[in-house]
Specification:
With about 100 residues, this protein is α+β, with helices and mostly antiparallel strands. It has one domain: DnaA, N-terminal domain (GMP Synthetase, Chain A, domain 3). Helices cover about 55% and strands about 15% of the residues. The protein contains four helices and three strands, in the order H-H-E-E-H-H-E. The chain has a three-stranded mixed sheet with strand order 1-2-3. Strand 1 and strand 2 form a beta hairpin. Helix 2 packs across helix 4. The radius of gyration is 16 Å and the shape is elongated.
Length: about 100
């Protein structure tokens, strides 16, 4: 009659769509970390803001940084895929600057 909480919670999170939101947030966090690591600097104003349809959207504070992100796109995607286990990452789109 009663299910253990350990089995009930994952089902409920999937039903509510919360699990997908958590996975997407992990992609965004991993993207920011990968960019900082690859460019060897922590950049104020750089934010991974959305992930939909395999595309990560990143806002950049200036055009040279946006160009650097586009230049390193394959390495960033590979790093994020390795860290998160996601296979559906296709592209990074930049805006701002």
């Amino acid at each position: 009659m009663f299910e253990k909480l350990g089995r009930l919670m994952p089902k409920r999170l999937v039903q509510q769509g919360t699990a997908r939101h958590v996975q997407d947030a992990m992609v965004l966090t991993a993207t920011e970390a990968a960019i900082s690591r690859l460019l060897d600097v922590k950049i104020e104003g750089l934010h991974a803001v959305s992930f939909r349809g395999g595309v990560i959207k990143v806002t950049c504070p200036n055009s040279p940084l946006a160009a650097a992100v586009r230049l390193h796109e394959p390495e960033i995607i590979a790093s994020v895929a390795k860290e998160t286990g996601r296979r559906d990452l296709r592209a990074i789109r930049t805006s701002g600057g």
